[in-house]
Amino acid sequence: MRKKLRVAAYAVCVRDGQILLARSPAPDGTPEWVLPGGGMEHGEDPYDTVRREVTEETGYRIEVTGLLGVHSFQRTFRREGLRRAADHHGVRIVYEGRVVGGELRNEINGSTDLAAWQDLDAVPGLTRVRLVDVALRLWRERPAVGRLAEEPRE
């Protein structure tokens, strides 16, 4: 089985009771809400990754205001068209960010197709990736060790 490690950085940007999210198609094509962020490029610092990814996906420039935590998961994937399954290990660095410039816009020819502010109270009703819930718990609970207690496995 092929082993794959992916390290990514994401931002929780909350203002006026709303969170900044982006929309991305799931593997089956269903649109789902995600945190702005994404994979690190080789040699890139995660701090730079999160700022670059937020700008690419939303049009906003952010100031990183804190490190909320790290979320790690491991899962076996079998992608259509691939003969072998992949043992995927994802490491997600979750920052808190504050918008300091730019204008909200949608990403063009990227991994997301829509960026929007969503009411925090509406998040449970959205079709979203699990990381949104994990990140909001990190933002609310602010665990000193940067990891949630009794974290659900993916």
Q: Which strand order does the major sheet show?
A: 5-1-7-6
Tell me the span between the first and last alpha carbons.
Answer: 19 Å
Secondary-structure element series: EEEEEHEEEH
What level of helicity do the residues show? 10-25%
Second-tier CATH architecture? Alpha-Beta Complex
What does this structure look like?
- With 154 residues, the chain is α+β, with helices and mostly antiparallel strands.
- The protein has one domain (2-141): Nucleoside Triphosphate Pyrophosphohydrolase (Alpha-Beta Complex).
- Helices cover 16% and strands 45% of the residues.
- The strands form two sheets. The chain has a four-stranded mixed beta sheet with strand order 5-1-7-6.
- The longest helix has 13 residues, at 46-58.
- The relative contact order is 0.28.
- The mean pLDDT is 92.
Outline:
With 154 residues, this protein is α+β, with helices and mostly antiparallel strands. The protein is built from two helices and eight strands, in the order E-E-E-E-E-H-E-E-E-H.
Write the layout of secondary structure elements.
Layout: E1 2-12, E2 14-15, E3 18-25, E4 31-34, E5 37-39, H1 46-58, E6 60-77, E7 86-102, E8 114-119, H2 130-141
Parallel strand pairs: 1-7
Antiparallel strand pairs: 1-5, 2-3, 3-4, 3-8, 6-7
Question: Key features?
Answer:
alpha+beta, 8 strands, 4-stranded antiparallel beta sheet, 16% helix, 2 helices, globular, 4-stranded mixed beta sheet, Nucleoside Triphosphate Pyrophosphohydrolase
